[in-house]
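NAD(P)-dependent dehydrogenase, short-chain alcohol dehydrogenase family, Streptomyces melanosporofaciens. Tokens?
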Amino acid sequence: MSNRLQSKVIIVTGGSSGMGAATAKRVASEGATVVIGARDKARGEAVAAEITADGGTALFVPTDVTAEEQVAHLVDVTVNEFGGLNGAFNNAGGGNSHGTIREVEASFWDSVVALNLTSVFYSLKHEIPAIIASGGGSIVNNASVVGAAGDPSAVAYSAAKHGVVGLTRSAALDAAKEGVRVNALLTGLVNTPLWRGFTESNPGAANSILEQQPIGRSADVSEIAAFTTFLLSDESGFINGAALAIDGGLTAGY
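Tokens:
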């Protein structure tokens, strides 16, 4: 691995498993100090311990990204502990998001939007000033391919992820002249614990979804981590305000 993130301090939300954990480990392997924010204390501490055991620097901060005061605390701890903030992967999200517009209750809508969109607003609100104060840097927000096209079976989730794309573009324009870049990932099918659990309980539906993938497989979390690390590095310095598909070609047919 290179040291292209040497001396950078990076926050990863939802860093206790899946894409977040893979990205936390990857950026640490390239020299970054990593602060993991997640709700699962045991798994978050385990990821931080693994990074430390491999010679990296990592800290876990228990964080519910739907609570603004906890997001603010995550950023404050990072700056106080490591002297600044240079980047973030706002990855936390997901949850049970199925339901059509005629089925979804208002409380369900609120919970999905809070976890997948409002959390990103809180993160950007507190990360951007800290990154500006540290001399600039890069933020990556994890959206989804359903941030590029509607999904009638997951209306709240699709609306939230569309919101993440709009929020990304707005934040990118707002902070560009102060040295902060903001981009979004349109992630497709990724082999996470959530996906593996779905395939075990719904093998027929899982096979049907896989058949729709142009390259015939799901992404490994390491592939998402590699691209996210590039976007967090100075090598991607002219990429800003973009919604970038990493989906095996799925959105090429939208």
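The longest helix spans residues 106-133.
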